[in-house]
Amino acid sequence: MPLEWSGSSPELLLALDRASAEPLRCQLERQVRDAIRCGRLRVGERLPSSRELARTLGISRGLIQECYAQLQAEGYLATRTGSATRVAAGAAPPAPAAPAPPAPEPARLIADFRPGVPDLGSFPMADWLWAVREAGRAIPTAALDYGDPAGATPLREVLAGYLRRVRAAAAEPDRIVVCSGHAQGLVLAFGALARAGVRTVAYEDPGGPRSTEAAAAWAGLDAVPVPVDEDGVDVRALAATGARAVVVTPAHQWPTGVVMAPRRRLELIAWAADRDAVIIEDDYDAEFRYDREPVGALQGLAADRVVSIGTVSKSLAPALRLGWLLAPPSLAAAILEHKLLSDRGSPALDQLALARLIESGRYDRHLRRMRPVYAARRAALLAALAEHAPGVRLTGLDAGFHAVAHLGLPGGEAALVAAARARGVGLHGMSMCRADGGDTPVQLVLGFGNTGERAVRAGIAAVGDLLAPR
Ligand SMILES: Cc1ncc(COP(=O)(O)O)c(C=O)c1O
Question: Where's the HTH gntR-type domain (predicted)?
Answer without folding.
Answer: 22-90
